[in-house]
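Example record for the data management plan.
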Amino acid sequence: MAGPWRSPVRFGYEITLFVLVSVLDILMTNRLFLTGRFREANPVARFTLDHWGLDGMVYFKMAMVAFIVVLTQIIARKRPATARWILHLATAVVSIVVVYSLLLLLRSRGAL
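Corresponding structural encoding:
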């Protein structure tokens, strides 16, 4: 008997890509903090960082990733195109953050 929680995972490629860029975001955030020149711009993430350190920041960011993945799986049951669009949008947004972080890091090192 297949219950509602035993449905197959949809959009495995899109989820994998989203998780990958999210991990890159965590790595870039960590690298920027290690320079001592940067602060977290997101006030919720900054609160998490200030109270629970980098471990808390990782948990916070991964919780956001899990939220998006679960949300898109729920939406995909009735509106698969919308779920795929949300995953693409989330991946694009996080990718922009990763590229911006890389540019900040390169600029701080005088490479740009």
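Summary line stored alongside the record: The chain has a mean pLDDT of 91.
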